[in-house]
C-alpha cells in the first residue's frame, strides 16, 4: 500500500537540472534519510563553465552518498581524499563532527558527456553525530548485486535479503538500486518500518495504480508491496528505522539547534579545514532565512 506520493521539484542549477524529493513539507524523513536529489539526466558539453561545480562547503551530523547512473564527478575533501565518483561505485562520506568537500565536473569539462544520478544524505544517530569524519570508496565489483532473468539489483548501503553492503552505515537502513524489464515483478524488502520507492525511469504498477518516473512513493509500514514494471524501469528503495527529530539548515544536520549555530559560526569564522588540493575558493555561509526546523 502506498500512503502518499511526492513529485520531484525541478530546479536549474546553472545548466544542470536537479529534482528535490526530500525534505518535503509532507514527508521530512524516511528512516534516517533526510535529503534526496535527482541529478539530471543531462548531456554536458565540453568546456562546461566552472560555475556549475559545487565549490568546497561543510557538513556535520550526516553521511552523504552520490550514486551515479552515468557520468563522473570528482570528489575532494578535507581528509585528503581525491576520488572520481563513477557509475556503480559507492563513495560514503561520514561528516560526523565536521568535514568539507567539493564536487567538480572535470571530466565533462574536458570531454563532454552525460550526467545522471542521485545524491542522498543520511542522518547519523545521536551517539555518532560527533564521530570522526571518514570517507570510504567501494569499487563496483565489491557492491553486492542481485540477478534474475528479468531484473537486476545493487545493494548500495545497509542490509537487504540477508546480505550486508560493505559500508559503515551506523544505523539500520537499506539503499537499493533496482532495474526491471517490462513485465517483471519485484517484492520489496519488508523488514524496515519506513520505506520509500523512487521511480527514476519508466513506469510501475502497485496495487493497480500506475506510477511514472519522478514520483517518490511512501510505503505503508508493515505491508507487503509488489512492484510490476509496465515498461523497463529504474528504481531506488530508501528504507530504515527513524532516529528521532533532526534539524537541517543549509548543509548541516543535527539533533541540536545549538550545534547548528556552532557550525554556522565555525564556517563563517574559518575554523573548518578546506579540502586538500581544492582550497582556492569556497561557498560562503548563506544568509539565514528561517530558523532550522525539526524533521521527523
Q: How would you state the average pLDDT, rounded?
A: 95
Number of helices: 2
Which structural category fits the helices and strands?
Answer: mainly beta
Residue runs with pLDDT of under 50 for 5 or more positions: none
Order of helices and strands: EEEEEEEEEEHEEEEEEEEEEEEEEEHE
Helix content: under 10%
Strand content: over 45%
What is the oligomer described by this structure? single chain
End-to-end distance: 21 Å
Shape: globular
Biggest sheet: strands, sense, closure? 8 strands, antiparallel
Determine Rg (CA atoms, Å): 19 Å
The count of DSSP E runs of length 2 or more, i.e. the number of strands, is 26
Give short descriptive properties of this protein:
single chain; 296 residues; mainly beta; 8-stranded antiparallel sheet; 7-stranded antiparallel sheet; 26 strands; globular
Write up what this structure looks like.
- By secondary structure, this protein is mainly beta.
- The protein starts with a strand and ends with a strand.
- The longest helix is centred in the last third of the chain and has 12 residues, at 257-268.
- The mean pLDDT is 95.
- Strands 1, 13, 14, 15, 16, 18, 21 and 23 form an 8-stranded antiparallel beta sheet that branches. Strands 2-3-4-11-6-9-12 form a 7-stranded antiparallel beta sheet.
- The protein is globular and about 55 Å long.
- Helix content is 6%, strand content 50%.
Amino acid at each position: 500500500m502506498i500512503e502518499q506520493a511526492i513529485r520531484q521539484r525541478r530546479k536549474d542549477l546553472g545548466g544542470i537540472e536537479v529534482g528535490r524529493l526530500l525534505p518535503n513539507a509532507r514527508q521530512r524523513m524516511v528512516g534516517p534519510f533526510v535529503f534526496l536529489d535527482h541529478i539530471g539526466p543531462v548531456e554536458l558539453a565540453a568546456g562546461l563553465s566552472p560555475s556549475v561545480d559545487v565549490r568546497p562547503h561543510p557538513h556535520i551530523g550526516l553521511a552523504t552518498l552520490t550514486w551515479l547512473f552515468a557520468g563522473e564527478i570528482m570528489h575532494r575533501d578535507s581528509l585528503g581524499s581525491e576520488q572520481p565518483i563513477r557509475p556503480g561505485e559507492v563513495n560514503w562520506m561520514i561528516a560526523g563532527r565536521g568535514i568539507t568537500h567539493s564536487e567538480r565536473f572535470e571530466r565533462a569539462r574536458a570531454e563532454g558527456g552525460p550526467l545522471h544520478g542521485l545524491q542522498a544524505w543520511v542522518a547519523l544517530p545521536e551517539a555518532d553525530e560527533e564521530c570522526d569524519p571518514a570517507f570510504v570508496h567501494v569499487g563496483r565489483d565489491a557492491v553486492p548485486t542481485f540477478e534474475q532473468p528479468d531484473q537486476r539489483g545493487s545493494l548500495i548501503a545497509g542490509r537487504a535479503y540477508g546480505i550486508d553492503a560493505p559500508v559503515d552505515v551506523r544505523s539500520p537502513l537499506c539503499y537499493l538500486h533496482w532495474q526491471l524489464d517490462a513485465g517483471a515483478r519485484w517484492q520489496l524488502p519488508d523488514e524496515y518500518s519506513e520505506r520509500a520507492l523512487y521511480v527514476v525511469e519508466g513506469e510501475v504498477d502497485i496495487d493497480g495504480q500506475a506510477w511514472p518516473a519522478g514520483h517518490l512513493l511512501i510505503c505503508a509500514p508493515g505491508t507487503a508491496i509488489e512492484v510490476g514494471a509496465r515498461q523497463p524501469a529504474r528504481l531506488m528503495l530508501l528504507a530504515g528505522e527513524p532516529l528521532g527529530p533532526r534539524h537541517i539548515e543549509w548543509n548541516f544536520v543535527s539533533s541540536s539547534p545549538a550545534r547548528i549555530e556552532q557550525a554556522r559560526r565555525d564556517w563563517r569564522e574559518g575554523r573548518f579545514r578546506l579540502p586538500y588540493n581544492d582550497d582556492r575558493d569556497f561557498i560562503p555561509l548563506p544568509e539565514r532565512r528561517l530558523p532550522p526546523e525539526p524533521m521527523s
